[in-house]
Amino acid sequence: MDKEVKYYVCKHCGNIIEKHVPVHTLDGNLVHVVVGEIKHPMLEEHFIEWITLNTNQGVYRKQLNPGQEPVADFCLCDERSVFRS
After folding, report:
1. What are the residue boundaries of the structural domains of the chain, listed by start?
2. What is the Rg, in whole angstroms, of the alpha carbon atoms belonging to the chain?
3. What fold characterizes domain 17-75?
4. Per-residue pLDDT of the chain (85 residues; tens, 9 = 90+)
5. Are 42 and 64 in contact (CB under 8 A)?
6. Three-state SS string across the chain, please?
7. Under the phi-then-psi rule, with left for phi > 0, alpha for psi from -120 to 50, and beta for the rest, what region is 10?
């Protein structure tokens, strides 16, 4: 059963296209994700709450907190691969 993952526009700045786009790199089975070409500020009043990685086998998710870098590392196992839409 496939579930649709929904993404929302930032309520603070109203922009998800230019500054909030996650970029991933793949090194073997390690996927490194960074949110934003310029790292997004992670302030108490405005921060990225989570990063998800869609794979051909499901969704990985990492919770973030204020003060953390907006980055995440995921390890792909078995026959998993990054889902590209």
Report:
1. 17-75
2. 13
3. Immunoglobulin-like (2.60.40)
4. 445 666 667 777 766 556 677 888 999 889 999 987 777 789 999 888 999 988 888 889 999 999 999 999 999 887 778 776 5
5. yes
6. CCCCCCCCCCCCCCCCCCCCCEEEEEECCEEEEEECCCCCCCECCECCCEEEEEECCEEEEEECCCCCCCEEEEECCCCCCECCC
7. beta
Residue listed under structure tokens 């953390």: 68
How many Å apart are CA 21 and CA 15, to the nearest integer?
10
Look up the pTM and report it.
0.71
